[in-house]
Request: fold
Amino acid sequence: MLPRVPAIKASGLRKSYGTSVALDGVELTVEPGEVRGLLGPNGAGKTTLLRILFGLVRPDEGIVDSTGRLAGFVEDPTFYPNLSAQANLEILAMLDRESTPTRIPDLLRSVGLTSRGRHRVGGFSTGMRQRLGIAAALLRNPQVLLLDEPTSGLDPAGIRDVAALLRELAADGVAVVVSSHQIGEVESVCDTFTILSRGRVVWSGDVEALRAQATGSGFRIATSDDDRTLELIRSTSNVEAARTQRGDVVLIATEAALDDFVLALARKDIAVRRLELLVSPLESTFFALTHDGAGPALTADALADNPSLAAQ
Amino acid sequence: MTAAVFRAEWRKLTAQLSTRLLTLVCALGPLAYVLVLKTQSGVPTDALLGVWVHTSGFSVVFVLLVFAGSWGFPVLAGVAAGDSFASEYRLGTWKTVLTRSATRGEVFAGKVLAVVALSEALVALLALSSLVSSVFIIGRQPAVGISGNLVVSGHAVLVVLLSWLWDALPVLAFTSLAVLFSVATRSGIAGVLGPVLVGFAMQLLALVGGSTWAHLLLVGSAFDGWHAIVSEHPQYDLLVVSAAVCVVWTAVCLGTAWLILRGREFAGTVEGRGVDWPRLLRGSVAAIGGLALAAFACTWGPTGVTGDRLEASFTKTFSNLVRYQQQLLGRPAPPQSALLAYTTCSRATNDTNEGPGGDWTCSVQVLTSAVTGATPGQVSVPYDVDVQSNGCYRAQAPPAVVGTKNLTTEDGRDVLNPLLTIYGCFNTL
Reply:
């Protein structure tokens, strides 16, 4: 049996801008049909890596080997604002040997922009430009699709649509790389993850391996007696808690520890009125992996100071 | 693939408001000028052949060519090409364009071809609009050429079209300059204004010194190439040198622009960067230094503006205009061989009797025996002459000697006196 040829393989990539190191020996391999999440906090080097993969920026060291047609976008997708969505796609089709302009109506339909095809892109919202960016990428019939924060600006329905589209493409053998600084937005669509921090790969593997490393999730809990709940937590070794400025109780615990803790509350006649997941196991692992000064550490105090950590 | 990029770029260019406005100006500008001219009695005497604008539509076309060469063409090149590369930075669309299959070289070539095609198409539109407006509104009477020669209607159309066609070459060079500004500065403003400022600087330099070769190497001088076509005897050597200058400017500008673009990394948009003052300061100092160096170069080297050349040209032009004057007055034109005239020219403030300036005086001695109606004998006609570094001059005679602005024919019509203000150009090579 012949070994599988990666759709894209980057080895030993280094890139500096002056004294600032953007990438430091980054490796990335994506197989056909794989959806890989490229994760990291802001400034981790995700966009620089995508620019190098696209050939927009030359690495100081390292090589990129790609076997197929690359398409996608870096940062936000950009278009000619005085032209319509349809005209923009027609112009991009002209710049491609592989593009088929006759597919444009179908592509606009697939990203939900049929009714806006004749409208000037200058009046589009961020989400609509994201959708058009995906249509522009698909126009190339890509074998490798690189998307930088594709769900940025999309509503929940839009995020679901994009996730479904990416799964469909992967099923057809397209290698997909999706960058994001929010693991929660892409965890449902990705098979594998590469996590960057300060220009280095700090973790790479499949989603199960990442879940296995989870140290705990973040929750907000409301009980019939929050003060006694906090007292109980202090006497429990594997649950960490803190109060937010609004007086809510937040806690960090693994699933098993949380089960034990909720039963312990019941034994003390404390009723649980609300239990809300703030940070998923994958997100907490992501925080832990990227916490070396570049990203926020997931502690109960940090969660209490900023309950919206999960949305970062 | 370059052809596909060209089509894409052409579509973008033609969708821009600036392109549409420029097209409108090129289409209607000459018409507006001719209509204004028609309603006024004044003439643009400072422009070459300017006194003839009410006499022949073809003369109006030449005057429009003078204005276009001074300001119009650099502005046209700047607007057509100055934002073509810079707009991709401003809109952040380089990353969109360069992530398709067209290579960077194909994108560069396609974009350059598109802006050059646009510039030249606008020159053609301007030429057509000028010719049609002028001929229909002013008329298609014979025009007076640069040697005082008459250019009759059919030949005039050819000469006019060849003159405008010639200017396609310096427009190509200025378009390339706009591309260079657009790529190097990443600023649409610099791309549009750059060629205009360079054109203005070259006009200033044309007033400095008399070095013929230094002036010819300035690409702005190539806009004067049409003088060599309109002249009674085409000056092919001048055309060859001007063409070579345009080609070299084009090659240097486009070559430099390509080297910059090829080596550039697209690591982000230029939005929000603000003004890079140190860079702007360095650029301004370099531009002022370059201008000073060019000004010095213009004073260094031999001048082609000499008393001998001026005298030879003036004698010929004057003789042609005397014959034309007689025709206008309804008298038989004296044969060239019978019209004996010679000219002596000198400068009031320069002993060397050479170089451009407004202090030249030419005195034409005419043997009037061949001129019908004139008292036989020898007449001396003094002219104050302003000679430019490109060999073109404007001479003004006292009305007391050559007659007033308008002369009356024997059948009572008023005609323009061709001997009062004389325009001419001689070869400075």
The first strand of chain B starts at residue 143 and ends at 144. DSSP finds 14 helices and nine strands in chain B. The beta strands of chain B are 143-144, 150-151, 341-347, 357-367, 378-387, 392-396, 406-408, 414-416, 421-425. Chain B has two domains: 2-297, 307-425.
